[in-house]
Amino acid sequence: MCVEPNNSNSPTSTLLMKYTKQFTLKMEGKYKNAKIEDFEVIKHIGRGAYAEVKEAVFTPTKDLVALKIYEKSKLLDPLRRNNLIREIRILESLNHPNIMKIHNCMDAGNKVIMALELIKGKSLKTYLYNIAEEKFNSISEVEAIPLFKQMISAVAYCHSKGVAHRDLKLDNVLVTPQNVIKIIDFGFASWTKSDKKCRVFCGTPAYMAPEIITKTEYLAQPADVWALGVMLYTMLCGCFPFQSMYKLLDIYRQG
Fold first, then answer.
1. Domain end position, chosen among 68, 87, 117
2. What is the DSSP letter of 29?
3. Which residue segment(s) compose the domain that 32 sits in?
4. Among 94, 102, 121, 216, which residue has the least CB neighbours within 10 Å?
5. Is 167 a catalytic residue?
6. Cα–Cα dist 21/201, whole Å
């Protein structure tokens, strides 16, 4: 099955055209002039609030890729649209073995399609979670060290480029069968100076630094480091730190 382009000329269909034509990852020359017709979908991988992901083959080279497909009708909100544009630009600027790569971004009428590195593996959350007992398993320091070292390397690289991920969590860290870490989902990522505080409060509660929870201006890069610490704790202890605090916060908010 091929991904069929839609050539509608409606305002919605042309919403991102002027932006998407800018994005071609320079270090992946084999995809430089790729068109949507060059990709053949193999199977569905998953679906989120704004996009679906499919596994596909880039037919000229037979390379496997992941296609992240956005309906432009879901990008009418300027904030959501700008987040996508920023995500594309940030991914284009990064090149690290432990960070998912973007190969190309294409306009397909009423869709925006990102061709991404296909990562075979499972999330760190799935890696740790014991389905039968419905709880996380802890792993040994010997097992955790090489995984965490790769995570630190990737995040330090992002910070060196002025990029903060802002949604680091077990779900957004993939582990391949060869135990190679890949950090994914830069939807909340932003360029930020190390000394400039953020006012946008985003992320997942269990991984948020205290200043984000209390809606105080915060430094994004240290907040990433906090999230790394939460993940390391969970890997070694088999549970999240501060669980009681987050339960109390939920009760407070609901009350």
1. 117
2. G
3. 17-117
4. 216
5. yes
6. 30
Query: How do residues 84-104 score in pLDDT, each as one tens digit?
Result: 889 999 998 999 999 999 988
SS3 of the chain: helix, strand, coil, percent, to 5 = 35, 25, 40
Note whether 85 and 201 are same-domain residues: no
40 token code pair: 């053949």
- Please report, for residues 34, 87, 135, 230, 237, the alpha-carbon distance to residue 138 in angstroms, rounded to integers and kept in the order given: 44, 33, 10, 13, 5
Tokens of 90: 């940030």
* Nearest residue to 111 via CA among 52, 43, 55: 52
Same domain as 236, residue 129: yes
Q: Tell me the CA end-to-end span of the chain in Å, nearest whole number.
A: 50
Structural domains in the chain (count): 2
CB 235 within 8 A of CB 148: yes
Annotated active-site residue in 167, 171, 224, 250? 167
